[in-house]
What does this fold into?
Amino acid sequence: MKKYLALNEEVTRAIQANQPVVALESTIISHGMPFPQNMETALKVEEIVRKNGAVPATIAILDGKFKVGLSTDEIRHLGQKGQGVVKASRRDIPYLISQGIDGATTVASTMIAAKMAGIKVFATGGIGGVHRGAETSFDVSADLQELAKTNVAVVCAGIKAILDLGLTLEYLETHGVPVLGYKTKELPAFYTQKSGFEVDYQLNHPTEIADFLRAKWSMNLDGGVVIANPIPKEKELNYDYMMENIELAIQEANKLGIKGKESTPFLLSKVKALTEGKSLASNIELVYNNAQLAAEIAVALSKA
Ligand code: PSU
Ligand code: MN
It folds into this structure.
């Protein structure tokens, strides 16, 4: 595996000593946000993880390997290249690694690398899911398949609001992926605390979540867990306002024939433009909030 996986020194030491580590994805840097906010956010997220007692491990495909724990220069490189970096999900990994092409990892591929490295907790913004209109487009994020089989807990602000939340929950249920709400019974919708959907179970403390993860994986109930952490009340956007703008962005994407892996980055940047940057500001805040909870869960999990 060494040939394909490179952990930095700090992450190696932490994992060997059973110290808490939090995995972080890089598609959110290259494709999820514009430069320089993407780089600044990624660095601040690492700082928040540290402040809360865990070691951050931002993950990407660089120099023909999964790199676990990036340097500031590597994060800047991904931020500056932006959509010029390949968005790498499960199917893209062997091509990029064997050809030595750089890739930014999605939720799915970050889970894969985290599992290889021995990291159990991962923080991101929002997971991919079933797109609206998937009954004809078949656009279902590979994130969901990964959650079905890979033992990593994903802390997020729910399912990205541009998706069909109801269908995504059905998919997760079918595949046995638990959706937990942190201090909430309602599934958050990324930019908002409200969604109109319920989570499976509400848990109110990182230690309870750690117990949940131990129980699941000790019994070999393989697969991930979605830990939905609502955006802080003072940072959330208005639900109806967001739904209107998302609807406009989706209409635009359909008109332009945007599909496949371009769909999510297009919609996120269109929504940002339509909301005059408000969606980006709340996206950044919710990621910070998730980094903190992920670190707290990693700390709880590292205590026997
Ligand atoms: N969450 C964000 N911004 C993002 C993403 C998630 O706040 O850019 C990325 C993640 O990497 C996720 C991907 O895995 O979008 C989903 O893309 P797709 O729908 O093409 O699978
Ligand atoms: Mn897709």
